[in-house]
Design brief:
With about 90 residues, the protein is mainly α. About 75% of the residues lie in helices and about 0% in strands.
C-alpha cells in the first residue's frame, strides 16, 4: 500500500504544479500536455492498485484533486466557450 501511495502521489502533485509554473503561452501548452500524461500515469497506478488491493487502495484517491485539477479546468473552459459562448 505504501509503495502505491509513494508512487502515485508525486505524479498527482507533478500534474498539478507543472502548468502553474509556466506563464508563457508556448511553454504552457506543452506543460499542460505533460500534466495530462502525468494524470494518466496517476490514474493507471490507482487502477492497478485497486485491482491488486481492492478497497484498501481508496487512500490513493487522496491525490485526485491534484491529478485532476488541470483536466477539470480545461474541461470547464471548453464548456464555457462551446456551450455558453463565454470565452475568456
Amino acid at each position: 500500500m505504501a509503495l502505491y501511495f509513494s508512487v502515485s502521489l508525486p505524479f498527482a502533485v507533478f500534474a498539478s504544479v507543472l502548468p502553474s509554473s509556466f506563464r508563457t503561452s508556448p511553454h504552457l501548452t506543452s506543460a499542460i500536455a505533460v500534466s495530462y500524461m502525468a494524470s494518466g500515469v496517476w490514474g493507471a497506478v490507482v487502477a492497478f492498485a485497486f485491482v491488486q488491493l481492492g478497497r484498501r487502495a481508496a487512500w490513493l484517491l487522496a491525490g485526485a484533486p491534484f491529478a485532476l485539477l488541470w483536466p477539470a479546468v480545461m474541461f470547464w473552459l471548453k464548456f464555457a466557450c462551446d456551450v455558453l459562448r463565454d470565452c475568456i
